[in-house]
Amino acid sequence: MVTVEEHYESLLSDVYTWLMGGFDEAKSNNVEFFKSRNITPSSSGIAVDLGAGSGFQSIPLAELGFNVTAIDLSQKLLNELKSNSNNQPIITINDDILNFKDHVSASCELIVCMTDTITHLKSKDDALKIFQDSFNSLEDGGKLILTFRDLSTELNDTDRFIPVRSDENIIFTCFLEYEPATVKIHDIVYIKTNGTWKLNKSCYRKIRLSVEWVENQLLSIGFKLEESSNSNGFKTIVAVK
Ligand SMILES: C[S@@+](CC[C@H](N)C(=O)[O-])C[C@H]1O[C@@H](n2cnc3c(N)ncnc32)[C@H](O)[C@@H]1O
């Protein structure tokens, strides 16, 4: 078992963008996501991307006119973000998202924490800290957008093997091992080099957050829920201060 940071460093960051369908497809999905929700800068224009990865949210937000601070533990993915960003106004910070308040000096209009980043935290208390710090950092009317997979319901037996993506050179499979509060995520990737398949495998934990728990915490902090929706098991929550 390794930490999230080690997992991305040793396995996931090298194939992450490919895994998500490639940069152009993942970016255009997010352009559509923000467009369909009328997300555009209307006051401070300051946006923070928590767990920014290779920039699938940061870059569309910068193109919409936001000044984006992108925070991630993976320097490899932040380097990708920078090289894809076309000199858009994006500040990249290599740090734990739990420290994000140290990197924003003014009230934010938008905070996003998308594609399961929130479940990479170690505990529900850490998720709660992100929710509370987000509330404190947002201006009135500012939004927190979360997207994550609700892992509260267990898959059983062979359903726990997920064929994530494959092509002629890479086969990526995931195996889920459920624990009471967490799920051990075993990533198993075969990469073909010079005609030979090589196996790389690594395991890390995600926390099991139910959408009801997340909604209740956000409401009790003082957020209003503008959206709570489900698409193929992926939850989207848009919370407004
Ligand atoms: C599933 S990826 C999502 C990336 C991006 N938001 C997207 O939609 O593609 C999760 C990202 O969160 C980062 N991450 C996980 N835990 C983190 C933490 N505690 N602090 C900073 N980054 C973290 C990982 O390095 C990874 O880039």
Characterize the quaternary organization of these chains: single chain
Taking the sheet with the most strands, its summary is:
7 strands, mixed
The CATH architecture of the largest domain would be: 3-Layer(aba) Sandwich
- Please tell me what the overall shape is: globular
* Number of strand elements: 11
Helical/strand content category = alpha/beta
Count of folded domains: 2
What's the SSE pattern?
HHEHEHEEHEEEEEHEE
CATH class designation of the largest domain: Alpha Beta
Task: Provide structural commentary.
The chain has 241 residues and is of the alpha/beta class. It has 2 domains: 4-151 and 210-240, Rossmann fold (3-Layer(aba) Sandwich); 157-206, N-terminal domain of TfIIb (Single Sheet). Helix content is 30%, strand content 37%. It has helices at 4-19, 23-36, 58-64, 75-84, 124-137, 211-221, and strands spanning 46-50, 67-72, 90-94, 108-113, 138-149, 161-166, 170-178, 182-193, 196-207, 224-231, 234-240. Strand 8 and strand 9 (196-207) form a beta hairpin. The N and C termini lie far apart (38 Å). The mean pLDDT is 95. S-adenosylmethionine is lined by residues 4, 8, 20, 51-53, 56-57, 71-74, 77, 96-97, 114-117, 120-121.
